[in-house]
């Protein structure tokens, strides 16, 4: 079986890229086709992969301006020649599923979510640093992108959703059924510790929609210690907002992140994610999560057992959740047991089984 893996872009490291890393462990010989690849932004293990880029790799300042090249991505993926492969496995929240295929090729799409900036435009742009006039006119330019996105579903034989939340969006957007295989969590790396520190933790890309701002404002008000791991376009703005109780650690290696997770009081998870691997990583370390009750967190956090929820993204509700958390008690062993249900080896086994079964049926 010759398999090609296709991914939207490799210019930052997050949950979708952890999926690619796990897929590479399953299929180490499979090339990975992507629009652009920034080796400096990804862990060292990506440098050992067979990564093949599109013509976009040579565009001026593409790593900084990748969002501004929006309308070139469909052309980039349609230009890939994947005719020699038996299976195309796309990992996509945007463009990768738009690759072309022969009728006798099997195309399985691991969908992180339907295009957020197209199908959930208002939610996506409301906190982004986009000029107001662009926010008003951009939807008109995105209409052809919507049609292109829907038309692509005819090239996909099977959808895999990373969560129930995404499965519902696939049904609503594309009128397609999907099987759910949750993303991988490296429970072997994130382990409990006997050390207990007084700080709370945020691990996130510093993008506007992640809502790290409300965490900082709340912890400024409560004067509790907060450590923030991650980097992104909102970094400067968030540092200006932060009081002396907030420490920015930047982007760290997984081993360093694991140590901080193992020692924290709790992870604060203020955004709405399609699934969200980070809460399960901290749960694997036996630590609870204070999470916004929306999206994938509702499928992984068990209120009162592995964490607590807050129901609105504002300082008042988060303040209440933190105070409630301080009166709760949590069992590290039970929290870790819950996280192990999402372990990477389970993901790899489920993916391998799904691909092999569908290929046999397809032939």
Automatic annotation (TrEMBL):
Domain Glycosyl transferase family: 196-329
Entry keywords, A to Z: Transferase
Record domain Glycosyltransferase subfamily 4-like N-terminal: where: 14-187
Domain of life: Bacteria
Keyword Ligase carried by entry: no
Pfam families in the cross-refs: Glyco_transf_4 (PF13439), Glycos_transf_1 (PF00534)
InterPro entries named in the record: Glyco_trans_1, Glyco_trans_4-like_N, Glycosyltransferase_grp1
GO MF: glycosyltransferase activity
Protein name: Glycosyl transferase
